[in-house]
Amino acid sequence: MNYTYRIYPAANQQAQMLAWLESCRRLYNYALRELKDWMNSRKCMVDRCSLEKEYIISADVPFPGYMEQKRQLPVLKETWTGLKDVHSQVLQDVIKRLHNTWENFRKRNFGFPRFKKYGQFKSFLFPQFKESPIVGHQIKLPKIGLVPITLHRPIPDGFAVKQVRVSSRCRGTQWYIVATIQSDVSVPDVPVHGRAIGIDLGLERFITSSDGSYVERPKFFKTVQSRLKVLQRRAARKQRRSKNWEKAQIKVAKLHHHIAIRRKDFHLKNAHKLCDQAQTIFAEDLNTVGLNRGMLRKECVDASFGAFLSLLEWVCWKRGVYFEKVNPNGTSQTCPNCQAAVSKTLEDRVHNCPECQYSTHRDHAAAQMVLIRGLDNVVPVDDGERKLPGLAVLSGAFCLDKWLSRKAQERS
Q1: What are the sequence ranges of the domains in the chain?
Q2: CA 257, CA 167: separation in Å to the nearest integer?
Q3: How far is CA 71 from the centre of its chain?
């Protein structure tokens, strides 16, 4: 698990960490340049390569892999000013970070590593610790020293700090650490149990549950958009790279950070609220990338459905609640009462079934369909109970759902 804490380094420590970030950025770009040069020199046959546009590398030079580039670090430290000041394992992690991106590109066939511009490299990692670096209300970072930390929640008993990532936000004015903690405990998969609900995510109502409850969508970005527009206009009028320009950019970054933490706080509170309501949650497996590119992309990005689903899945795992995503196709075009197809446009906000006369809010009907599709994975048995592949018996709280009552009548 990862725990995030705010730290408050001194002025000299901030300058040192900013210098580390710049050295890591330059090393990342240097290693990526080696990788791209090696690839460009082997794009075509030797007798057909352009001697003017491509750097020709000998055929016996191996591919600059992770181990090969990591072995070059001691040599680079002798000629590269600034690398000696950075912790050796931090530099090794920079090379590892590049090759992780390269391997992901090879698997997905998209997302080729890019060069990092000034200010784009915002974190570095200490990959291992012999002892816990957190001592009281301070954290001891190698070569940096003791840094005050806001320990708003203690490290749980039985957990050890394995890694610490130092991250800068708001253009280097705010600093955080992400502590990776580990315990030698085997956590079993959460079985389906207790009361089940289905949820539907939307722009009118952020969350609509199958039991009829819903949560309105707060407009995090639009509420402060006018203020952001003023700050961006002031920043644009400043001379680029001047001190006043940097101050104006920091104000813009802090407002964006304020929007992000408000959104995350809203997501986290509602995730815990859903876990309080039920022990089994079904949600739509939305194509969030496609939604963020559609005609309502501004509202979808502001709502951040993908971040909420990821956070909800983590909260469910942490609290022992079963979570599963279902196919979202046609959930709003199907009647949850009789399974008839009821076509609706985006303007139709009420579900009226012409077959069974069932009427409810559009999002409520979609949430009920999500619950039905989720419960289709339940395997009925002959003893009158409903079991799942994990051999977990579902409790009688499912009888609160009309669909299960109807299914029980059909089986009888």
Answers
A1: 2-182, 196-221+255-411
A2: 13
A3: 33
Give the Cα separation of 374 and 380 in Å (integer). Answer: 14
Distance, in Å, from the CA atom of 363 to the CA atom of 359, rounded to the nearest integer, reads 12
CA angle 381, 387, 391 (to 5 degrees): 120
pTM for this model (two decimals)? 0.85
Cβ neighbours, 10 Å, residue 370: 30
Which pLDDT tens digit goes with each residue over 198-254?
999 999 999 999 999 999 999 999 999 999 999 999 999 999 999 999 999 999 999
